[in-house]
Fold:
Amino acid sequence: MTPGADSAPHLGIEKCTSFRGRGWRCAVFAFTVGVVVDRVEAEELRSALEWAQVRAMAADGLSQREITRRLGINRRTVAKLMEAAEQPRYARTPRGSMLDPVEGVLRELLEQWPELKAPRVTEILREDYGYTGSVDLVR
Structure:
């Protein structure tokens, strides 16, 4: 976000400050029943509130352009929110770990030799099983 950018009044406060001459750091705080929620929750809250506002304004008969003007969001976003049957949710697919393919081997090694240190376990995994990750991940 750019400094001085207008935020929706229902969100709360957006504070942008200069960060030691290396750019701008912006934080969005949403206030709900006197509790400050973090940035991710604020984004979800913003999306849910915008969705509800767009749906309500559309039900009142306002055009997409008028909703866009009043809320200050992109017209394509308004169109998507009008078409959505339920409020938008953030969903991230689990990526897994580099250790997943060798997890069974790792457990076996630690059961047989519980005193093995991470560097030696990593060395065994690299030589015999093609592990390419770091020692820190094995720790």
